[in-house]
Please model this.
Amino acid sequence: MKYAALVLAATLIGGYADAAQLEITLNQPALDVQPYHRPYIAVWVEDSQRNAVATIALWKQLEEGDKWLKDLRQYWRKVGRNAGSEIDAVTGATRRPGDHLLHWDGKDSQGKPLPAGEYLLNVEASREEGGRDYHRVAFELGKQGQINLPAKIELGPIQISVK
Model:
């Protein structure tokens, strides 16, 4: 009986990306423009059917509430307009230019481990009196790899390590 329970447990766990994670180095370039406003940035994961499963980071002006959040158009449509308190833990103030390290533990917004498989990483930036940049890239949770995204105007190069 104990053996059957162990086999069942191993079968159930086997379909999940054991301790899978993403490590993202996001570069925010220093732009020589006046006036300069720090961009709002959203980083989130979608499943292969393009349903949002987890928000990794949301950087915005905290004192402004959600006033300008709609400028992150892709994020707003997928997550922002229906988001509840689950994004509070990943929401923070806008950041200064430079490299920023983000970690994602492979869990959905309810804290449940996601099964191994193909997912989409989304990174979007929008700056007041500036531009908008957006990246969407596929990755396989549970399979190690490295992805490098090219620089755009509002977003510098992005390195993604799938572990």
Summary: Residues 1-17 have pLDDT under 50 and may be disordered. The chain has one domain: 2-162. The radius of gyration is 17 Å. The longest strand covers residues 117-126.
